[in-house]
Design brief:
Blueprint (H helix, E strand, L loop, with lengths): L2 E4 L23 H18 L3 E4 L16 E4 L2 E4 L5 H4 L2 H10 L3 E3 L13 E3 L3 E6 L7 H9 L2 E6 L12 E3 L5 E3 L6 H10 L5 E3 L2 H4 L7 E3 L2 E5 L3 H9 L3 E5 L2 H4 L10 E2 L2
Parallel strand pairs: 1-2, 4-5, 7-8, 10-11, 13-14
Antiparallel strand pairs: 1-15, 3-4, 6-7, 9-10, 12-13
Bound molecules: arginine.
The site of arginine has 16 residues, from loops.
């Protein structure tokens, strides 16, 4: 059974600008954001049978809703994120507290090394991919690779609009992959192509990548993805996935969508 950590959007908003999507003038319609978030949760819980763990929202932490950035959970161990931007560093103790209270063995990252959790570390059971440069530092990956005995392939993120790996790269349960190649350098594109066979890889169109088609949540053969990505949905269906589009445009104002609003707890 799939368990996800989520955080209600009580204090969600745009209060600073730390990625190209965020504009202080682009106010969030709060009631609409709350409705969109609840619709996502309803879909995950009722339609897909996911167990949701809700952490308490905290005033003045508008990005705490993006629990993908809490850290990563591997078995009973949680590696807590160390954010690049001071605006989000204040979230770290809240995520750490949640993991400790729920019985996880907590691993922290040394001072000065940045790591933004499942936003930048994704993969398949046997090996993972790590996104770096925009938020996480490449130096974190050898440490995690050794700790969890998994190969981690580092991928440099070269387009600031795709600042976390989960904005442009989405491994799926059947070994398939949705991705937007232009978000990676030539080396990264080659590394991906060497690992994931052509027939399992879908190149998301730019207009759909900009709607965060890759920021999808995959639960078994179900994929929850942002609304407005018909060609991505059509490909997913040919691969045997059932697609569930959700409108999450209020969260796009912050540079996030479905996947960022969840963290896999295993
Ligand atoms: N406003 C947040 C930030 O810039 C959005 C985070 C989205 N999270 C993600 N995993 N892509 O940090």
């Amino acid at each position: 059974m799939s368990r996800l950590l989520v955080c209600p959007p009580d204090f969600f908003g745009i209060e600073y600008e730390i990625n190209p999507w965020m504009r202080l003038v682009n106010r969030v319609d709060h009631a609409r954001a709350v409705r969109q978030w609840h619709e996502l949760m309803r879909m995950l819980e009722r339609d897909l049978g996911v167990v949701l763990e809700r952490m308490a929202p905290v005033p003045e932490l508008p990005d705490l809703v993006f629990t993908a950035n809490a850290g990563i959970v591997v078995g009973r161990t949680a590696v807590v994120s160390r954010f690049r931007h001071p605006e989000r560093q204040r979230e770290e103790t809240h995520f750490e507290g949640w993991f400790r209270r729920h019985g996880y063995e907590v691993m922290t990252v040394e001072e000065g090394l940045h790591f933004e959790g499942a936003g930048d570390l994704l993969g398949y059971p046997e090996y993972w991919f790590g996104g770096y440069r925009q938020r996480s530092d490449i130096r974190i990956f050898p440490l995690l690779s050794e700790r969890f005995r998994r190969e981690i392939i580092p991928l440099e993120l070269v387009d600031s609009r795709f600042y976390h790996l989960d904005t442009c790269f989405c491994p799926l349960s059947g070994g398939d992959l949705l991705y937007f190649p232009a978000a990676f350098d030539r080396y990264g594109q080659t590394a991906i192509a060497e690992r994931v066979p052509d027939r399992l890889r879908f190149t998301v169109r730019e207009d759909e990548a900009l709607k965060f088609a890759c920021n999808a949540v995959c639960v078994g053969k179900h994929v929850v993805l942002p609304a407005g990505c018909p060609t991505t949905q059509a490909w997913l269906r040919t691969r045997g996935y059932e697609t569930h589009p959700v409108q999450l445009d209020e969260f796009m104002k912050s540079g996030g969508s479905a996947k960022c609003l969840t963290l896999a707890l295993g």
